[in-house]
Each structure stands twice: as structure tokens, then as C-alpha cells.
Amino acid sequence: AAGSFRRSIASQLSKVLDLPPENLIKSISAVPVSKKRHVADFQFSIASIIENSSSDCLTQDLHLQAQQLAERLKCDSVVSGISAGPGTVNFTINRELLAKTVLQQVWKDGSEYGVKSELFSTVPRQKAVIEFSSPNIAKKFHIGHLRSTIVGNFIANLKVALGHEVVRINYLGDWGMQFGLLGVGFQSFGNKEKLKSSPLQHLFEVYVQINKAAEDENTKQLAKDFFRKLEEHDEQTLSIWKQFRDLSIEEYIRIYERLGVHFDEYSGESFYQERAQEVLKMLEDKGLLQKTIKGTGVVDLSEQKDLSTVSTVMRSDGTSLYITRDLAAAIDRMNKHSWDTMIYVTDKSQSNHFQHLFRILKLMGYDWAERCQHVSFGLVQGMKTRRGEVIFLEDVLNEVRSRMLQNMTSTKTTKEIQDPVETAEKVGLAALIIQDFRGLLSSDYQFSWDRALQSRGDTGVFLQYTHARLHSLEQVHGNAELTDVNVACLQEPDAISVLQHLLRYDEVLYRSSQDLQPKHIVSYLLTLSTALKITFFLVFQARLCLFHAARSVLASGMKLLGITPVTQM
Ligand code: ARG
């Protein structure tokens, strides 16, 4: 919707400034809705043309320039008002045209409203590999894995919505000495029935028990032997390991489903055990592998080639490390998928690891290393469930569902809900996701169930509530029809605010697609929900259309964030 307005403003400006409209369009943006609403719908930033024109302008006062420019522009059938602000020229769109255009565009594009904007038309379609979640079998699924799961899912959703091809990979921690211990542990503490019915929990219990026992030398030796047999591909040992892995994945899939998350590939460190050896060979051939006195293999990453920064890629016994397997995995993914970008989503404690990884790939001559990206996020403190410290993802999901259900039953409306448990799950998940996505991903935050589950304010519960309310309004008053809508009925300040806000959706999506931060979309949806001020009387047909448009945008934004909008609550 904003597109036609931006184009029209750009063509006006182009005549006065004598610059091609394509150069101006990027500097025209929809004005965010604020308390002092009605200022204008669009603004053009003066600074943007000065950057690329003659330098004598720099000394001039931006405000003065804005005033001079504003004076030279004229209103027309699209623009009904022009004014100057500090460094900007502000444009107000003809009110009826604004309402008509926004509504028509939402009707036309439906759930693709925003992503179909011309803002994205110059962005080339790409293939992206996104690796996220990546828990370690038999170990805790901690809050960092949960963050990785929802952030990675958001990035994948956004990319898919924008027309890119996405491969979602889960890179499991499925190899290493822990499996030696687990194998031995299972012989003493394992239970086949439990392994089948709840593999994640059972393997974790076995792992905890055997770790206590692993103090004694005998157990340690047995674990080493088990792992060595695994590395030698002893068939029987391998089949035990495979059973642990397969059953774990089955359960992961079931739990990810509750989150609406799926993967195209379950990969893991085990895949790259052997290929890591080939990587070491390549490093050696390229003269990049250096041996230390201790016998470990390192790659020099210092600018001065003085071994001040090294990355250890080989143990003294010749075996590979975490980073060596990651090198092999990156190369393999390039061969397999010929991706344009590859994104790894983990907490920021692994930033160094990924910097080293990308540097080594570059040194090996892989220019695509520059197209690898680590999306990192901060730490979450204080998430506890009734069972105590978080160990399993399922506990978090159960906890938020039961807390939400309790909140819902204490309000009267719940009785009419067809499936309260499922609704509670979806609303609860929205609460978790919004709490997590409100700030910058890189910042740490203190987790709070009460804060997350508040029914008003900047929460996922509020978004879900707004969506459900809008849905039921449409239910009660009949579906909104765009034909014959009297847009003159949408001229009160509240309605205009909503329209202005709807106009900005593409710009918000664009920002999130650039920096991969969900918070722009989150605050956009929260503002939309606040701006709606749903009145339960006097629902004209025109208002119904506006509500329908708002709900459509709300739903598509929520889905991008990984939230399933509810229709009642
Ligand atoms: N399994 C790892 C962990 O839990 C995360 C894996 C991240 N991805 C990677 N390619 N190294 O810490």
C-alpha cells in the first residue's frame, strides 16, 4: 500500500530536486504512529540527499533546507498536506485515499501483505541454510537451546515468507566421549522399556548416574573402550548408539511439533567424524596445520603469523575437535546445497568459536566463508519449572501451558472455549516467544513467568487476546466485505492511526530482514494491538473492514514470529 504513495511522493520530489525518483524512494518512510499522531503519514529525510550531492550543502542548516524544499512542493490528488520538520519534509496523504488504498492492498495481498512490497523487489532470491536448536543427546536441553530453536525458526519463517529457499538443519551433539559413558551406563542402569517410552529423559538419567560412577578407573576405562569401538564402527556398538540417536530424534520431532518447528535435516557431529580427518589432511597440505610442543595441531589465526591467536583443530592423539567437525560440516553443506548464506544460531558464548571457524575456512581458500553468519543471542537467567532447573524442553512447554490454563480458568470466558488446553498451549507459547523477542537478541534477560503471562501490556497473551477479539467481532458481525465501503467512516483519529500503522508493515519487515532482529516486528504488532482500541458497539461495515485488515496483518506477523494465532480465549 505504501508503495504507490512512496512512488507518487518520489516523483514530485524528483521534479524539484532534479534527481531520479529511484534514488529518492529509499529515503521516504512511513511515520511511526505516536502519541502526537496526525503529524504526517510519510517523511522524506533531507540528510539522505546531502550525503550524495555537493558538499557545500553540508554546512547548511537542515531545517532551513527542509523548509525551502517544502515550499517548492505542491499538494496534488495524492498528497493533501506538506510541512517541514527538523531535517524532514512531511507528507500527509489524502485521507480517503489512504483508507481505500490500505484496505484494498490488504484484501489483494492477504497473508502476503507486506512481503509483496516493492521494498523487497530488488533483493535477490537466495538459498539459505539455517542451523538451529542443535541440542546434545543425553545432556540438558537448556534455555539456550530453546532460544536457538525459536530464533532460528523465526529467521527461517521470515526468509521463506520473503521468497527465499531455506534448508533447516538441526546439528545434534551426537558424538564424543559422552556416548562411551552412556553406552557403559546403559549396561548397568538402562531399561529398554523406558528408553522406548521416554528416551530423552531416560538417557539423561543414565548419563547422570554413570557420571557419578565414572570416578572409578574401571568405569572410565570401559567408557573409553566403548567409544573406541564406536569410532572403529564395531557393528554391535554402533547399533546401540544408533538406537539412542534414533529414539531421541523421534522424541525431539514430537516436541518440536508442539512449537510448530520442523527440520529438513537432522545432522550431527557424528556425520563428520571421518570427514574431519580429511579436513586435517587438507589443512596440512595447504601448510596451515602447525604442531605445538604438546603435539596438538593448531591453525595460526593471528595477523602477524606469530601464533598469538591459534585455533586448536587436532588433539595430540590425532583425533578431531568440535571445530574440526564444524569445518567438515560447512564444506559438506556447501557441496550439498550450494547455499548463498549460511546462518548458525547459538548463544554468544560460542562467538569466538564461529569467528575461528569462518577465519579458517577463509584461509583454506573458501571465499564463501564471508557468507557465513553467526546469529548470537544473550543469556536468560532464572527460568525454573515446578520440577526445578530446566532439563527438558517438554517441561517448559508443559509448565507454560498449565500456568496459562490456570490463568484462563480464573476468568469467566474460558467456559465457552472448545479446546482450552490447546488454546492455553498456543497462548502460553506466544507469551514465551514475545518475552524472548521483545529486546535485542544479544541482550541478556531475567526470565519471569508472571511477566511473560500478563494479560495486558507488551506480552504475547495481549497479542493473542487482540487477535481472538478481532476474530470474534468478525464472527458476530459477519465477514467484512470491501465492496461499497464508505471510507468516510474511517476518518476518526483512532482509525487513522491504525491505517497509518498498517502502512508501515513492509518497512518493519524490511528492517527485521536486514538485521534479523524479531523485536521490530514484535513492537510493531504490540503497537498495532494498542492502537486498535476495539469498540464493541457501532461496528460499521467500514470499521469491520479495518478490523479485518488489522487482524490479517496481526496474524501474519505472529506467524512469522512462530506464534499460532488463536481465534478464541
Ligand atoms: N550442540 C552445540 C551445543 O549445544 C551447539 C551446536 C552449534 N552448531 C555448530 N555448528 N557448532 O552447544
From TrEMBL:
<dbReference type="InterPro" id="IPR008909">
    <property type="entry name" value="DALR_anticod-bd"/>
</dbReference>
<dbReference type="GO" id="GO:0031966">
    <property type="term" value="C:mitochondrial membrane"/>
</dbReference>
<keyword id="KW-0547">Nucleotide-binding</keyword>
<keyword id="KW-0436">Ligase</keyword>
<comment type="similarity">
    <text>Belongs to the class-I aminoacyl-tRNA synthetase family.</text>
</comment>
<dbReference type="Pfam" id="PF05746">
    <property type="entry name" value="DALR_1"/>
</dbReference>
<keyword id="KW-0648">Protein biosynthesis</keyword>
<keyword id="KW-0472">Membrane</keyword>
<dbReference type="InterPro" id="IPR009080">
    <property type="entry name" value="tRNAsynth_Ia_anticodon-bd"/>
</dbReference>
<dbReference type="GO" id="GO:0032543">
    <property type="term" value="P:mitochondrial translation"/>
</dbReference>
<dbReference type="GO" id="GO:0004814">
    <property type="term" value="F:arginine-tRNA ligase activity"/>
</dbReference>
<dbReference type="InterPro" id="IPR001278">
    <property type="entry name" value="Arg-tRNA-ligase"/>
</dbReference>
<dbReference type="GO" id="GO:0006420">
    <property type="term" value="P:arginyl-tRNA aminoacylation"/>
</dbReference>
<keyword id="KW-0030">Aminoacyl-tRNA synthetase</keyword>
<dbReference type="InterPro" id="IPR036695">
    <property type="entry name" value="Arg-tRNA-synth_N_sf"/>
</dbReference>
<dbReference type="InterPro" id="IPR035684">
    <property type="entry name" value="ArgRS_core"/>
</dbReference>
<keyword id="KW-0067">ATP-binding</keyword>
<comment type="function">
    <text>Catalyzes the attachment of arginine to tRNA(Arg) in a two-step reaction: arginine is first activated by ATP to form Arg-AMP and then transferred to the acceptor end of tRNA(Arg).</text>
</comment>
<keyword id="KW-0007">Acetylation</keyword>
<keyword id="KW-0496">Mitochondrion</keyword>
<dbReference type="InterPro" id="IPR014729">
    <property type="entry name" value="Rossmann-like_a/b/a_fold"/>
</dbReference>
<dbReference type="Pfam" id="PF00750">
    <property type="entry name" value="tRNA-synt_1d"/>
</dbReference>
<keyword id="KW-0809">Transit peptide</keyword>
<dbReference type="InterPro" id="IPR001412">
    <property type="entry name" value="aa-tRNA-synth_I_CS"/>
</dbReference>
<feature type="domain" description="DALR anticodon binding">
    <location>
        <begin position="463"/>
        <end position="569"/>
    </location>
</feature>
<dbReference type="GO" id="GO:0005524">
    <property type="term" value="F:ATP binding"/>
</dbReference>
<protein>
    <recommendedName>
        <fullName>Probable arginine--tRNA ligase, mitochondrial</fullName>
        <ecNumber>6.1.1.19</ecNumber>
    </recommendedName>
</protein>
